[in-house]
Write a structure and sequence with these properties.
The protein has about 400 residues and is α+β, with helices and mostly antiparallel strands. The protein folds into 2 domains: about 1-200 and about 320-410, Zn peptidases (Aminopeptidase); about 200-315, Alpha-Beta Plaits, CATH 3.30.70. The protein has helices spanning about 1-15, 35-45, 55-70, 135-145, 170-175, 225-240, 280-295, 325-335, 350-355, 385-410, and strands at about 75-80, 85-90, 100-105, 120, 125, 155-160, 180-185, 195-200, 200-210, 250-255, 265-275, 300, 305, 305-315, 345, 360-365, 370, 380. It has a 6-stranded mixed β-sheet, sandwiched between helices. A hairpin with a 4-residue loop joins strand 12 and strand 13. The chain is elongated and about 85 Å long. The relative contact order is 0.18. Residues about 1-30 have low confidence and may be disordered. The structure holds zinc ion.
Length: about 400
């Protein structure tokens, strides 16, 4: 029932063609970051921590360990293999009820010219300033707030390979989520301040097509053209997209053939499928299987067509809307209590929300401060968004933890 109500709301917004962003009641909130937290943000933004930069990541980690321990947390540093590490902070005596999730790595390598923090008016630019060093500073700021009750019931987990798919840290993240009901992923909010309430699942496939080589001028009739077959298959596979349902099928790469004067005997395609519902994936995979097994290029002299195989290259489960519904309802209530309207929407890209949703935890992704230019040399944060997020998340965290505390008393 709840899901149906959500769908109605989303459809209505879609129909009228707008996703309202955050609207603030006039001047209800301060328009800046407290100088202590801003300095700490500047310090960690100025340290390169591109995925794989073990030295930079260690430097950022040691600064954060110091800050979290100053708040009473105990540090666990978990080896994730291949120099990757997951940081986890807990109060050893308390059962955590909320998981704060973040990543220390950025997409910016050491050689990138974009390396430093710059503040102009109410805009701060810098590598990772929203994705997601700003989110990590927001976590600390929130946990240090005097008005936060039950800080001990928050567990914080920070990985360092998110930007390359969390392949090393994924299993550890899932272990850290066990027995915790709610999880906030401090990725930046979307451009209009919306949070992410649904992530598509992703599947990558490789389709190999085999034909028969022959001299293109001397005896082309003895050839079976795999490149031509691949082109028919591309057209059919691409037609499976239904973006209005959040289902996209993209042929991203094509390779094939050896020389212009040889009938092409081998071609391959890679395919990216993004889906909201598992049933959609199942259906598309069945349709691709039909396309694979049928040969459109057929040599009647040889009584032979092309042959094709499919291999799976990668897969990532989705974060379905069922994984966020309950927390999103609480989030909206808490936002309105501090004079903010919060909206949510589904996106086609992935985050650690995808990796965590199968654990059954209720999630919300994109609760961090926002701005724009993510993953580019123009990444920036609007300081107003930081103040909004702080007020809202303080209210939300208190609501969840106070409710949990009351239930425990009963
Ligand atoms: Zn991120």
């Amino acid at each position: 029932m709840k899901i149906r109500k959500m769908a109605w709301y989303r459809w209505l917004l879609l129909l009228i063609g707008l996703w309202p962003g955050l609207t603030l009641e006039a001047q209800a909130l301060p328009n800046s970051i407290n100088s202590k937290w801003e300095s700490l943000l500047e310090e960690i933004v100025n340290i390169n921590s591109g995925t794989g930069n073990a030295v930079g990541l260690d430097r950022v980690r040691s600064i954060l360990i110091h800050e979290f321990e100053a708040l009473g947390y105990t540090t666990s540093l978990i080896n994730a293999g291949d120099q990757n590490k997951v940081l986890s902070f807990d109060f050893p005596t308390a059962q955590p009820e909320i998981l704060f999730v973040g990543h220390l790595d950025t997409v910016f390598e050491k050689e990138n010219p974009f390396q430093s923090f710059t503040k102009i008016g109410t805009t701060i630019s810098g590598p990772g300033v929203i994705d997601m060093k700003g989110g990590i500073i927001l976590m600390l700021n929130l946990l240090a707030a005097e008005s936060l009750d039950h800080r001990s019931k928050v567990r914080i987990v920070l990985n360092d390979d998110e930007e390359t798919g969390s392949t090393h840290s994924r299993a550890i993240l899932r272990q850290q989520a066990v027995k915790i009901k709610y999880g906030l992923v401090f990725e930046p909010g979307l451009g209009d301040g919306s949070v992410v309430t649904e992530h598509s699942g992703v599947r990558w496939l490789k389709l190999n097509v085999y034909g028969r080589a022959a001299h293109a001028g001397l005896e082309p009739e003895k050839g079976i053209n795999a490149c031509l077959e691949a082109s028919y298959k591309i057209a059919k596979i691409s037609a499976l997209s239904e973006p209005e349902r959040g289902l996209t099928v993209n042929v991203g790469t094509i390779e094939g053939g050896a020389k212009p004067n040889i009938v092409c005997d081998q071609a391959s395609l890679t395919i990216d499928i993004r889906y909201r519902k598992l049933a959609d994936l199942t259906e598309v995979l069945a349709q691709i299987e039909t396309i694979r097994s049928h040969s459109s290029v057929f040599n009647y002299l040889l009584n032979e067509g092309t042959k094709s195989t499919i291999e799976s290259l990668a897969e990532l489960p989705g974060m379905p809307i069922e994984s966020t519904y309950e927390l999103f309802e609480l989030a909206k209530q808490s936002a309105s209590a501090v004079g903010i309207e919060i909206t949510g929407r589904g996106v086609g890209y992935a985050s650690d929300g995808n990796n965590l949703s199968e654990t059954g935890i209720q999630l919300l992704v994109g609760v961090g401060p926002y701005g724009g230019g993510m993953h580019t040399n123009k990444e920036f944060m609007l300081t107003q968004s930081y103040a909004e997020r702080l007020a809202w998340l303080l209210e939300l965290t208190n609501n969840i933890l106070t409710k949990g505390a009351k239930q425990n008393e009963k």
